[in-house]
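TL;DR need structure tokens for one chain.
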Amino acid sequence: MVKTKEALDLVGRIKDILWEKKAEGVVALDLRRVSESLDYFVLATATSTPHLQALERHLEEKLKEEGLRPRPTEGQSPRWVVLDYGEVVVHLMTREARDYYDLEGFWADAERI
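>> reply
TL;DR here they are.
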């Protein structure tokens, strides 16, 4: 489990890693003031299912090099992948899924970081 300073550093690294693989619309949300159970979300859009899978693999490989592995999650789909790194949860989505589920709208009161 990472602490707040480490979590913010991790958010920055995740954003950089996703940009390396041409993720679109990379956004980080600080949910600590609007949720009792969530800390940070990083959201990113993939242009296709293969791109989504490439983003997931690249992120997992890069963070594994730092000794970080995501917690097991259920219900992955070809449109939305969730990687849970404790205080930081990453949502990789196709454009259609991101528009449909509108996490940024749902968490509109969260600070963007």
